[in-house]
Amino acid sequence: MSILVLGGAGYIGSHAVYQLIDQGEHVFVIDNLETGHKEALHPDASFYEGDIRDIDFVRSVFAKESIDAVIHFAANSLVGESMQKPLQYFDNNVYGTQVLLQAMVEAGVKHIVFSSTAATYGEPESVPIMESLPTKPTSTYGETKLTMEKMMKWTEQAHGIKYVSLRYFNVAGARGTAEIGEDHRPESHLVPIILQTALQQRKEMTIFGEDYDTPDGTCIRDYVHVEDLIDAHLLALTYLRNGGTSNIFNLGSNQGFSVKEMIQTAEKVTGKEIPVQIGKRRPGDPSTLIASSEKAKQILGWNPTRTSITKIIEDAWNWHSSHPTGYGRNDLS
Ligand code: UDP
């Protein structure tokens, strides 16, 4: 069995490649290395450097290799940036997926596992968020992912490509062996920013708002360990190979932690003081996002095991403290 992983040099994609290879799968990677890192590529994966919007390039990979399923991580994924550059997000995310699906139709590949997001829901009507809640994205990023899901739905009807869309909540942590981890330039995610502050790479960090309607006033998020998240992708592949119908699942941990709780836990894990200042709210941040992942547990048999935030922060810390410059560049910008 051969799997094509698009975006396999990125944070989440690289963890998928490692776990697929651990399971004995034969893996091909496409990545344009715009945000991904060559150093994050698994040495046993066959790598094709190129852009998914280049149909001739994508066709050539399907023509050369015998691929039976696709896992699609290749997308821009920052809410703030998507509000500044909406057309870039539609081009890379939506048009890129259109090209990919076109190439899959031509090559007769019938299974895709897709990386989606809690940002498809927007400000939720209730928590925990179930898949049946309305989708009303409040960012271009969320809108593009929802559009990509809809594109897969209609493509399935015409061409029979079955999909599983996985809506991620807050992914954090790193592979237990610390060979690979999270390295975004610039970094905007909470856990790496906390740990870069613990490493004194930042003088202090900013808490975005202390006046939310939550017990300590800071935003509550549902953090899921990247390795648990990838376990769900492997189960989704098995589900599709066993004839499962197209479906959408949330991936979270059903529990929420505030920004302050994350910082306090990181101080315990690292033994370092983490200086903070209180800043303004970040535009577009909902106060509380917590997933119901019951559907993934029941239908895919997902059983996340690294659910404590201490474990998530410990694994992230093992990566950051052993790779203080990430994949090698010294500047964090
Ligand atoms: N956050 C923060 N300071 C930072 C980065 C993030 O207070 O420097 C907060 C952010 O407002 C949100 C939570 O941490 O409530 C998680 O943010 P992140 O960007 O990691 O993920 P998001 O929830 O936006 O997907």
TrEMBL record:
Enzyme Commission number(s): 5.1.3.2
Cofactor: NAD(+)
Claim: NAD is one of the keywords in the record: yes
NAD-dependent epimerase/dehydratase domain segment(s): 3-252
SUPFAM superfamilies named among the record's database cross-references: NAD(P)-binding Rossmann-fold domains
Catalytic activity reported: UDP-alpha-D-glucose = UDP-alpha-D-galactose
GO terms for biological process, alphabetical: galactose catabolic process via UDP-galactose, Leloir pathway
Enzyme class: isomerase
A GO MF label: UDP-glucose 4-epimerase activity
Name under which the protein is recorded: UDP-glucose 4-epimerase
Keyword terms, alphabetized: Carbohydrate metabolism, Galactose metabolism, Isomerase, NAD
Lineage: Bacteria, Bacillati, Bacillota, Bacilli, Bacillales
Subunit structure: Homodimer.
Pathway(s) the chain acts in: Carbohydrate metabolism; galactose metabolism
Pfam families: Epimerase
Family: Belongs to the NAD(P)-dependent epimerase/dehydratase family.
CDD domains attached to this UniProt entry: UDP_G4E_1_SDR_e
